[in-house]
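agent> call fold_tool(seq_1)
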Amino acid sequence: MFLKNAWYVAAWSDEITEALQQVILLGEKVCMFRDSTGCVIALDDACPHRKMPLSRGRRKGDAVECGYHGLTFNCAGQCIVAPGQGSIPSNARVHAYPIAERYGLVWIWMGNPALADPNEIFDIEHFDDPAWGMNKGKALEIDCNYLFVTDNLLDPTHVAWVHQSSFGQAATIDTPLRIRKQEDGVTVWRWMMDVEPAPFYKKIVEFDGNCDRLQHYEVRYPSHALIRAVFTPAGTGGVDGPMHDKTFIMDSYNFMTPETETRTRYYWFQLRNIRPQDEALSQMMSEDVRHAFEEDREVLNLVQQGMSTKTTPHIDLNIDGGQLRFRRQLEILIDQERTADTALE
């Protein structure tokens, strides 16, 4: 099940060129390319005649010619050439998807175009702030349903077992979780006080000794996440703790785009509040984060396999509270959307 009236990441901006290419999103095939002005165009990747993929056709200026019988479509999806027809059939058109570019990403609206508002795209604090550094990597292809990924991103406890050499530490095993449900999503968080920094962060923080650590796991509907890590010298953290001049903050942005019911494309990057021009630090963080995400991918692929072939019911634990709240509300939103669509038919 997918929420259609929402913005999803279709690609990194530099992945879309003037060449026609097929991108799969929410089980739908989309033909994407840049027109002569550099704008990204997204059309239903199926000629209405015999459903030949337009992405296998040819560019004709800013139009797309089907490679089967030459029907040609403009950037709005309207057929402008129909060889041998005399006149163009009124139903010779393909759907054109609303597109926006922001944060180096191409965003696509898969639902009702009349509802597409770029102001609703996930807001990223500090993206253009010169005081903050960035690291990123290529999108991950994960062979699982996107909700297993959102489950993972609402589960601070998994790092104790999946990421023992990077994000995990003893305190991540049993420090209680706090859950907060908002209108646009769910946040699971906890402070761990006077603990040793986890291995990945120990290489980055600019203070010695123990720390107070915040795990803030926030996922917004339909499948976008902010994972905030705060490491501050022991005694300076907590909900009301003072900000220390050596406090390290890393905001990890994660955008899950469902390709199909069992495959997800995962876009990610991190922003940090220290050493913004340190390219060696950025490279190290990208490599280490990528390695940790590969650990996630291995686990999630196996979870999908296990859940798809289970012969006994699965169980839920107390640590699943945030995930279950998120899934319930998302299901409500999807049902409401379907009801509204049915009423318009």
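agent> call fold_tool(seq_2)
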Amino acid sequence: MQHFLQCSTFSFAAVHPNSRGMPDLIANIRASGIWLPNWLASLAIFGVIIAVTLFAHRLLFQVLTRIVASKDLFWRSMVSRLRRPVRWALLVPTLSFAVAIAPLSDEQARVISHVLLLCFIVLVASMVRTVKHIWMTVYLRRFKLDAEDNLLARKHVTQSRIIDRVLDVIIVIIAASACLMTFDAVRQYGVSLLASAGVAGIVLGLALQPVLKNLFAGIQLAITQPIRIDDAVLVEGEWGKVEEITSTYVVVKIWDWRRMILPLSYFMEKPFQNWTRETASLIGTVMVYLDYTVPVAAVRHKAEEIARASKLWDGQVINVAVTDFRDNVMEIRILVSASNSGRVFDIRCEMREKLIDFIQREYPHALPRLRADLKDEPSAQRMAAE
């Protein structure tokens, strides 16, 4: 017992503010007959601290898991996803305590403490990013892009994804700045760096002009939203849907599965067509060219019948009108609406197929044809015989 009290006294003296420090502790331990190499003593201290921390971490998350079992998805996901980062975040301060009591040289202690500080900054940034990702994921679960009318979903998904990428950039910049500020050289020459920031900023701004332009265009895009995820657009003469919006470019999936990659600044500087800007519903156009002898009322009645029988029609617009007269035919325009761009394309094809079938059966003479008026019939007959 006397030996245990002696060792306990030595340990208390090592960590007490009024103690003479670790050298006296090592000297007293060696004087009492207990001798360990410094490296072995350091390993033992670090091992005990790590074991205690891991046990405390496991116990903590067992309690937290039971607490959030009845909570909503956000808290359950956060506890699940933060288990590993929190483990490392707990190890950093406890290892710093181990450095303070371990028999290390001043240089070794300084280097290890600095490394632990850098790890702590990175871990905090990682945890903030994880919490942000969980919140975004849970928030977006309320919106379905595959819904019939997905205008609200496209709006929130677009804003969330752009803001998510911008926040990632900000978190990385802040974490990198905090890591750099832990070095004495950066703090010492901070004034000089700030003084030269004007010239360096101009040079860097010129070099990174396209990147910065797209970055600010992304922020403007998230606010004004000229395009959204899953918007049907007509860009560079190609029709497609907005598949992805990153921090620098937009991916448009063309109707034949090709991908068009465009910079974000394109949508802020050049005109394009957005077919689903306000609503997913669209009006499709079918142009038919028929002979003047066809009864327009019959064509109108048949077009309305086809629209009412189609599962693709949304019941809003069906219109038939003669829009032009040409040399040999008249132009009939049929307008028909559907709930989204894909259905509009399909119902236009259905309207063409069924309408031409009707005209072929009921009014075959009304199909476009080329007429010739032969004034000299006998001459024409002789020429045909020859």
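agent> summarizing second result for user.
Residues 106-140 form the longest helix (35 residues). The first strand starts at residue 232 and ends at 235.
agent> awaiting next instruction.
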